[in-house]
Amino acid sequence: MHAIDSLDEYTQNDHLKEWIKEAIALCQPKDVWLCDGSEREYKELCQRMIKNGTMIPLNPSKRPNSYLCRSTADDVSRVEDRTFICSKTKEEAGPTNNWSDPDEMRKTLLKLFKGSMQGRTLFVIPFCMGPLHSPLSHIGVQITDSPYVVCSMKIMTRMGKEVLNVLGNGFFVPCFHSVGMPLHNNQKDVPWPSNPQNKYIVHFPETREIWSYGSGYGGNALLGKKCYALRIASCMARDEGWLAEHMLIMGFTNPQGQKKYIAAAFPSACGKTNLAMMTPSLPGWKVEVVGDDIAWMKFGEDGHLYAINPEAGFFGVAPGTSANSNLNAMQTITKNTIFTNVALTDDGDVWWEGMTPQPPEHLINWLRHEWSPNSQEKAAHPNARFTAPIKQCPVVDPDWESPRGVPISAILFGGRRSTVAPLVYESFNWEHGTFVGASLSSETTAAAAGQVGKLRHDPFAMLPFCGYNMGDYFAHWLSFGRKADPSKLPKIYYVNWFRKDAQGKWLWPGYKENSRVLKWIFERVDNKAAAEKTAIGNLPTKDSLDLQGLNLEENDLKQLLEVDREAWQQETQYMSSYFQQFGPHLPEGIKTELNALIERLRS
Ligand code: TSX
Ligand code: MN
Fold it and tell me: Fewer CB atoms near the end CB (10 Å): N or C, the chain?
């Protein structure tokens, strides 16, 4: 632990020193902790949280060095209606973001942060998004009053002293966070402090600042992830000519040992984490994971596109994760893991819905209530999470921390579509692929708020994560492709694991069998697999998909690869009316692609 007197020894960064002093004056914390990122610091903060009832240590013989945290029932997920993009004008934020005037918002936030850390410790967390010495990485510093955030950031990012050495007197994104629950006159703390009345997740894209107030959970509080690595980074990427995307990154190796890297964007509840570390059913093929959520991509000296994962951990949804659905995730979280809002077993381990076929006879659920299989309440909250280091994954890619990044051969867009969208198709070129990404939509599941089974547009799976006008973001993708040598650009694909027949039966087995689709993509990139040109894109011919050992019925395959002209004409209507909202910000290239699709569907 450091006292604030040691600030000059802690960092040489003038802006950082100033900001820390300002934050202390504003928030009036009881004390200050300048994080060094050490193991010792982590353990000490865990001990503090155990004493406060925030954390329960799990049984070390079952889950070594692992902890359970339970939030309050009103602080369980990202709060999109309280998330703001405070660009100078509303137009710059665009029609898909909440906008607020930056000057007004600053006043509001200053009032809220004033005295907000009374009775608490102010922590300073220097962190690096991406490998420490990568030219693709960027640095942030989070100030927070939550020790849960410090420990989570230790897993999710490269955090601590070394980051300050790399930073020097350079640029960092200030990430200012308070749970918004000051403790007055020795008032007793609660296990999960937060502010149910007042939540603000605020981004200032012009000054590259993040302010977050009132929530201690996930993307609201771990500001390196969605706030920085997507919303602010998307603005940096637009201005500097790179891409910050909501994509997994995986290596895919064939039985001959040839390897390609794939990046893939899916809306929530499509199983992105499962795909990122999948065990292929096809003999001799191998998947290795670089990341499961975010990709930062830039052209290398050789003109190819290279990607890094800015994160160092997985913040994965626990419910539904099992040895069947994702064995590699289950093995990743056997130790050194923080669990949030899952259930506690009688032997000091964790459980959640879908973890085992048979639920335990007795649990303490996420709401801290006694639980048995006939209870009305859930054992785990549907958005319960594990926070675990990527390096613990049995199939972590050997190059996952390469400072150069990994070369991307294919980009996948996907959605949960029970009708219309086929299993897989290939776009004709980058412009067409950009249009496919812009047109993404997915059916909602119980995991998300709102009606189940409703089609939601989610362009590039970036709807809640784009820090500027989504129309301008489409334009950035188009201009990005124009700058490249087309022969070196990744090919762009659409995939859909969720097609159903008229009776509601899944047509595709999914999971490890998705390796068959990835194999077709791999071989298309090498110009080896056959395809048939259709109105929507290039589809596999019946014999070009490796279906050996799958008892897929002829008729099911036919449905999986069909392009229903009328259904697609209807689809273009939906796309067209969705794109209306972008008005003059909708780039010509997207209009051209939509009209070309409509034309191809006519003839
Ligand atoms: O993650 C999924 N993937 C990707 C896996 C690498 N899920 C789970 C989605 C929620 C997170 C899937 N669910 C996938 C999938 O490919 N496919 C499905 C739909 C499905 C569910 C069950 C079956 C088949 C398909 N079971 C049987 O056919 C027996
Ligand atoms: Mn995500």
Answer: C
Tally of CB atoms within 10 A around 583: 12
Length of the chain: 603
Residue 117 Cβ < 6 Å to ligand 1: no
* pLDDT classification of 266: cutoffs 50, 70, 90: very high
CA-closest candidate to residue 23, choices 163, 141, 103, 127: 141
Q: Is 278 in the pocket of ligand 1 (CB under 6 A)?
A: yes
Binned at pLDDT 50, 70 and 90, residue 458 comes out as very high
Cβ proximity of 150 and 144 under 8 Å: yes
Work out the number of other CB atoms within 10 angstroms of the CB of residue 570: 12
Shortest-distance Cα residue to atom 7 of ligand 1? 271
> What pLDDT, in 10s, does the model give residues 413-441?
999 999 999 999 999 999 999 999 999 99
- The per-residue pLDDT for 3 is 64
What does the pLDDT read at residue 453? 86
Tokens representing residue 40 in the block: 């010792």
What are the tens digits of pLDDT across the range 523-534?
A: 999 999 999 999
Closest by CA to 529, choosing from 428, 426, 432, is 426
| Ligand 1 in reach of 497 Cβ (< 6 A) | yes
Q: Which amino acid is at 445?
A: T
Give me the DSSP letters along 173-206.
EEEEEE-S----TTPPP-SS---SS--EEEEETT
What pLDDT score does 1 carry?
43
Q: Which ligand is nearest to the CA of 270?
A: 1
